[in-house]
Amino acid sequence: MKISTKGRYALRLMIDITMHGNGAPVPVKDIAARQEISVKYLEQIISSLVRAGLLNSIRGPQGGYRLTRQPSEYTVGEILRQTEGCLIPVECLNPNSGTCSRESTCVTQRFWRELNDAINSVVDKYTLEDFRSWTINEADNYII
């Protein structure tokens, strides 16, 4: 499994809002400058996060984006699934794909299920609050 730039940038964006929002809207241009990501690309990512209810959009001169919930209520898995889709390592585990014709005789199925469980347990374990607590120091001298 490989996480695309869209997934990685979505996570960086959400962490940036966690670090710099403090309840106030964070302008996309500020996020783009800190994260060195184009405003246009961030706007595409933000659009899907707003539609999913992960972010609120605030219009006007003091506008920007803010979290809809507390940082401790967002998992990395939720953010990645919103931007990447399903995180399964192989298509035969996808419940939307129907039953695999080899399921009853497949010797690798146990491995793929365990790998899928391991991936989900890690991405669903960490929250945005965890990243806030991992900052290097209070001078905002960190890299996402």
SS-based class = mainly alpha
The residue-averaged pLDDT reads 90
Q: Largest sheet at a glance?
A: 2 strands, antiparallel
- Please give the alpha-carbon distance between the first and last residues: 21 Å
* Tally of helical runs: 6
Low-confidence stretches: none
Number of strand elements: 2
Q: How much β-strand is present in the residues? A: 5-15%
Helix content: 40-55%
Radius of gyration equals 18 Å
Cα shape? elongated
| Helix and strand pattern | HHHEEHHH
Strands in their spatial order, largest beta sheet? 1-2
Key attributes of the depicted protein:
144 residues; mainly alpha; 6 helices; elongated
Question: What would you say about this model in short?
Answer:
This protein has helices at residues 5-21, 28-35, 39-51, 76-84, 109-123, 128-133, and strands at residues 55-58, 64-67. The protein is mainly α. The two termini are 21 Å apart.
